Amino acid sequence: MMIVDLDYTRRYLSLQINDVICWWWYYIKEISWQLLIALLAYLCVCIFLYALLKRVDHTAWQLPGPPDRLLLVTAHPDDEVMFFGPLVYWLTRSKVTKVYLLCLSMGTCPTDDLSWCPGSVLAGGDKRRIDELWASAKILGIPEANITIIISSELPDDQTVQWPIDEVAESILQYIEIYKINAVVTFDKHGVSRHRNHISLYFAIAALCIEKKVPPYCKLYVLESVNIIRKYIQLLDLPISLLSAPYWYLVTREQKHTIKKAMAAHKSQYVWFRKLYMVFSRYTFINTLQEVSALDLELDLQFDED
Ligand SMILES: *[C@@H]1O[C@H](CO)[C@@H](O)[C@H](O)[C@H]1NC(C)=O
């Protein structure tokens, strides 16, 4: 009697387990099928948007004005092409906007191989990086005369170093006043790659804004940082970018060649991982910008205090 019972229970249990497995299997199949369809639909939206935007004029979504004189503030030679490529591409081709570039350090050369850096070694950098910046900017369409490089031992090229905000802010303000700049563009508070040098530039313009030192004719904009997944999906980020930002610049695959060539001009920097970056990064196709306003900054500060 007991033996039959045990047998029955075992059979009953295995049937139940089978049932559960079957059900899960069906469920997973169904879900992955739906995920696949969603993914394909998203892909179609991306292709459609790209094809559409290639044909239509999208200057309406670029910086308003458009600004007469624009100052791009970067931390290292090569930031202007690695992160701001599409913006610079369109600005230098616009008939209206005059572009100026302020780069706050010379960057460093690879130190393990000094043969990379012949010529005179200057404070925390090398002349070679300056030559590369000029060559690169020329390809992008910014003449040497419109580029200012600040060489200061206070501003080292270092991931971990936050630059003195006052000094950076003062340099930017001087530039705005001398050149009567209408729009300043720089990094946002995440600095795209969380590089402390990049973030210092944001803090500097935020300080100018909060202290109300920015002249009324000048507006401040920052380049949006995105999460790591969005950062490396190239054009697949297009729909999200268009929805999330008021101002954007987009280049086509053909126009991107110019940006890639400009990056290649930074010879000492153009190593394998930056080559990969140039292939996969969304920043070589899309730049999205936000305006900085004193109100937003104050809310942000309050939020940080809470
Ligand atoms: C560079 O600056 C000059 C003088 O301000 C200006 O005329 C020119 O348009 C600028 N170049 C670009 C590409 O914006």
From TrEMBL:
Q: Which domain of life is it from?
A: Eukaryota
Cellular component terms (Gene Ontology)? endoplasmic reticulum; membrane
Using the UniProt record, name the top-level EC class of this enzyme in a single word.
hydrolase
Tell whether Membrane is among the UniProt keywords.
yes
- Give start-end ranges for the coiled-coil region(s): none
Q: EC annotation?
A: 3.5.1.89
Q: Which Pfam families match?
A: PIG-L (PF02585)
Q: Name one GO molecular function term.
A: N-acetylglucosaminylphosphatidylinositol deacetylase activity
The Gene Ontology biological process annotation of the record reads: GPI anchor biosynthetic process
Q: Where are the transmembrane segments?
A: 34-53
Q: Which UniProt keywords apply?
A: Membrane, Transmembrane, Transmembrane helix
Transmembrane helix as a keyword of this entry, yes or no, is yes
The record's family statement is: Belongs to the PIGL family.
Which protein, by its recorded name, is this?
N-acetylglucosaminylphosphatidylinositol deacetylase
Q: What is the lineage of its organism?
A: Eukaryota, Metazoa, Ecdysozoa, Arthropoda, Hexapoda
